[in-house]
Amino acid sequence: MLIGDVARRSGVSARMLRHYEALGLVRPTGRTDSGYREYSADDVRRIFHIESLRSLGLSLRDVGRALDDPGFKPSELVDDLIGRTRERIAAETELLARLNRIGAADPAGWEDVLQVVTLLQALGSKSALTRQRAALSAVEEVPVPVEALVEAVLNESDPIVAGALRWALAQSGGDGPALVAEGLGSARAEVRERAVRTLAELPDDTAGALLRDALAHPDVTVRRYAALALGARGVTDAVPTLIDMIADGRHDTDAADALAALAADPAQADRIATGLVDRLTRAGAGSLGRRRLTEALADIPGDVPSHALADLAHDEDRAVALTATYILGLRGARG
């Protein structure tokens, strides 16, 4: 079979077949009387093998090793190819995301494109100060797509920069809350925490609904931050989680302040007081937890907490009894 026939049947150009020959990958079995290359069926089969291996991303050098080296271990090369392919996909995915962000900024000219690119690079800088300046510029100078701000805030470890990014995101509007909420599903605990803390600083109704959903999140840290944010917004759905936080000693002072603010509504004061008392008398609260719950009753107005404190003044736990007695004295003085 002549080189032209082989090229037509294999889809490999005659030029590439000559290149393979120069590299020693495939050699024609013979020559015709006129000196033309002549390929056998085995030669053609080897060409197909070469093309198959190249389709996996192997270099021509590796193809030669795979076909001719008896000690060649394909598993090692395949593992290496998998790693390189993943790196390439990650790089291409990052490029695609960047291009989408530039497109979303709706640049009017190349100067706008360069400004957005510069700002995106600054958001990914190793310098915290540079990232902070970029966050401020995203609002004051160069409009940046919400997706870029969300990615930056979910990956930001510096608390000062994170605060600037959350502020910038709050000013940007759009689909920010929904995009941030996707971070609640991250496998990384720190990303989930950043997501809920960011939602807590977004003012719109969408963020509030997402925070309500977060009260049922399997991550207790997410539930706690959601409860604090909702309590500050006057959402009573947060009450059970806030009470648990006091009992567990996790952000208990902030949780008690949130409950006190919610209890300013007379319709909620008795419900909150009852919840505190129920949690206080539940098995497993522990001495310190019961004392913290007793202290939380101090800022809840109404008769229900007063009656509960009167009972607690005779509690078997001396620390609880003394705390309740002291609080009753303060309430009496105020009354």
Tell me, briefly, the overall form: elongated
**Order of SSEs, N→C?**
HHEEHHHHHHHHHHHHHHHHH
| Average predicted local confidence, pLDDT | 85
By DSSP, the count of extended strands is: 2
Tally of alpha and pi helices: 19
Biggest sheet layout: 2 strands, antiparallel
Instruction: Record the strand order, biggest sheet.
Output: 1-2
> Helix coverage percent of residues?
over 70%
Relative strand content? under 5%
Rg value: 34 Å
Runs in which pLDDT lies below 50 for 5 or more consecutive residues are: none
Q: From the helix content, strand content and strand pairing, which structural class follows? A: mainly alpha
Distance between the termini: 109 Å
InterPro entries: ARM-like, ARM-type_fold, DNA-bd_dom_put_sf, MerR-type_HTH_dom, MerR_fam, PBS_lyase_HEAT
Keywords: DNA-binding
Protein name: MerR family DNA-binding transcriptional regulator
Organism: Streptomyces solicathayae
Write structural notes for this entry:
The chain has 335 residues and is mostly helical. Among the domains are: 3-72, Multidrug-efflux Transporter Regulator, Chain: A, Domain 2; 234-335. Helices cover 71% and strands 1% of the residues. The protein is built from 19 helices and two strands. It has helices at 3-10, 14-23, 41-55, 60-68, 74-104, 110-123, 128-140, 146-154, 159-172, 176-181, 189-200, 205-214, 220-232, 239-248, 252-262, 266-281, 287-296, 303-312, 318-334; strands at residues 30-31, 37-38. It has a two-stranded antiparallel ribbon. Strand 1 and strand 2 form a beta hairpin. Helix 16 (266-281) runs parallel beside helix 18, helix 17 (287-296) runs parallel beside helix 19 (318-334) and helix 18 (303-312) packs antiparallel against helix 19 (318-334). The longest helix is centred in the first third of the chain and has 31 residues, at 74-104. It starts with a helix and ends with a helix. The mean pLDDT is 85. Residues 1-69 form the HTH merR-type domain. InterPro entries: ARM-like, ARM-type_fold, DNA-bd_dom_put_sf, MerR-type_HTH_dom, MerR_fam, PBS_lyase_HEAT. This is MerR family DNA-binding transcriptional regulator. It holds the Pfam family MerR_1. GO terms for molecular function: DNA binding.
